[in-house]
Design brief:
InterPro entries: MafI2-like. This protein is an alpha+beta fold. It contains 3 helices and 4 strands, in the order H-H-E-E-H-E-E. A 4-stranded mixed sheet has the order 3-2-1-4, with helices on one face.
């Protein structure tokens, strides 16, 4: 997806994008893990579905996965009147594999700096 397409998609839905982003960051306070590599969103305007995709570099413990689900529920509580569905996708991709091209149609809201070793 081109950067211009991401920008247009965000601008059309800027108030919702800003609320989802702020709520996501707030919900991750005290929950974000060192394993977290990136956070991106997909938004389907017609069906009003938002998907939060969080990338990690290794498998999550049950506790970490539960914390991500709790965080997702907190975001949904903030925006439930504006969406029909709010999905959470947790992707495990090792640091040796790039994720920069895996951004959703609302772009990256967090992307960890990756070092070459």
């Amino acid at each position: 997806m081109l950067i211009d397409e991401i920008q247009i998609n965000r601008e059309k839905n800027l108030p919702l994008f800003q609320r989802v982003k702020a709520s996501t960051f707030y919900s991750l306070l005290g929950r974000a893990s060192k394993k977290m590599r990136g956070i991106t969103f997909n938004y389907d305007h017609k069906s009003k579905i938002i998907e939060t995709i969080i990338f990690f570099d290794s498998k999550l413990s049950e506790e970490e996965e539960e914390e991500m689900n709790i965080a997702n529920t907190e975001v949904l509580a903030d925006i439930y009147n504006e969406v029909t569905y709010f999905l959470l996708t947790l992707e495990i991709i090792p640091s040796s594999e790039a994720i920069v091209d895996k951004r959703g149609n609302w772009g990256w809201v967090y992307l960890r700096h990756e070092y070459d070793f």
